[in-house]
Design brief:
This protein is 28% helix and 25% strand. With 340 residues, the protein is of the alpha/beta class.
Length: 340
């Protein structure tokens, strides 16, 4: 059965995929139109319009640009069947998660892709990734926000860059791949578009005053006090399944108490990439979580935890609403929420 040719909007933001060599190193210089010229075969299954939103190294990505990307999708949402965002790999997982919260319940696919090598090189992963992304964005079964990279389709909240140089840079953390793409064929592992019942919803606010503290042995708890003075939320990236240390050098317990009393949001997560946190296992976690009612990221990625907090705090600062929204599963971001 032949489906009509899909209309896709490709949003370019820069990144390695659009870079050329300069005296100072690789720099995003290739335009969105030029990018499209490297994948002429996609005309067989889609019509593509392009929009150059940014042309930056993704190291320079920031929340106001996420709002810009989401606004562009909202403005053109009714005119296209799907969207592809070309992006640098370094912060791609953050952007994919952020767009997952800013554009919810999308029945149309919003695909984020990039490359480890510029598209104008003879040997590059860019052409395959871009072609695969446009193919997936043209698929009837595709929906929501995903990363397409190295033949894998990853939920937008589950991607993580785990390799700096290899083509298989991204993994899906604590969640299966949505699909794989090989030789122009898409094989779905999760084919559940029919379960989408809510209309698409766009959000327009983010609170970027979210900080991350990565614990190391003997860290001074005064760092947490400083963060509490300058940020609305602090994520504590703890060891193992999660806990707060008790050192002679400082009182983390007291610092966490001060944060909570000051109305700050404190979220516990783990430095370990796979399998998530569970603070109820050890005394160092169970006691403090129970005492202060700390939020826990469980199986969420760090990128999803950061951007979800920015999204939530952009809507409310009420502790009960924050808790309820944090534990609400959005675009497959959280499977295990323990006892709420």
């Amino acid at each position: 059965m032949n489906h009509p040719i899909k209309r896709i909007l490709m949003l370019a933001t820069g990144g390695t995929i659009a870079s050329k060599r300069s005296d100072a190193g690789l720099k995003p210089l290739i335009t969105s139109e030029e990018l499209l010229g490297y994948v002429p075969d996609v005309r067989e299954f889609c019509e593509v319009d392009t929009l150059q939103l940014l042309n930056i190294d993704s190291t320079n990505m920031q929340p106001r640009y996420w709002l810009m990307i989401a606004a562009a999708i909202e403005e053109h949402y009714n005119d296209y069947d799907g969207f592809v965002i070309c992006h640098g790999t370094d912060t791609m997982a953050y952007t994919a998660a952020a767009i997952s919260y800013l554009v919810q319940n999308s029945s149309k696919p919003i695909v984020i892709t990039g490359a480890q090598k510029p598209i104008d090189l003879e040997i590059t992963d860019a052409k395959t990734n871009l072609s695969d992304s446009l193919r997936f964005a043209s698929c009837e079964k595709a929906y929501g926000v995903t990363i397409v990279f190295d033949g894998k389709v990853i939920a937008g909240t589950r991607g993580k860059k785990e390799r700096t140089k290899s083509y298989n840079a991204f993994s899906s953390i604590n969640f299966p791949y949505i699909a794989t793409i090989q030789d122009g064929h898409i094989i779905f592992y999760l084919d559940d578009k029919s379960q989408l019942t809510e209309p698409v919803r766009f959000y327009h606010n983010l609170d970027s005053r979210v900080a991350l503290l990565k614990l190391i042995p003997a860290l001074d708890s005064g760092v947490l006090d400083y963060m509490g003075e300058h940020y609305d939320a602090v994520i504590i990236e703890s060891f193992g399944v999660g806990g707060i240390p008790s050192y002679d050098s400082g009182d983390f317990h007291k610092s966490v108490e001060n944060l909570v009393l000051a109305g700050k949001t404190v979220v516990m997560t783990t430095q370990v990439t796979n399998e998530g946190s569970n603070m109820s296992v050890y005394e160092v976690g169970k006691t403090i979580k129970r005492e202060f009612g700390l939020l826990e990221a469980y199986d969420m990625t760090l990128e999803a935890t950061v951007t979800k907090l920015m999204w939530i705090l952009g809507q409310t600062h009420d502790p009960q609403k924050i808790r309820r929204m944090f534990y609400q599963t959005i675009n497959r971001d959280m499977l295990y929420t323990g006892k709420l």
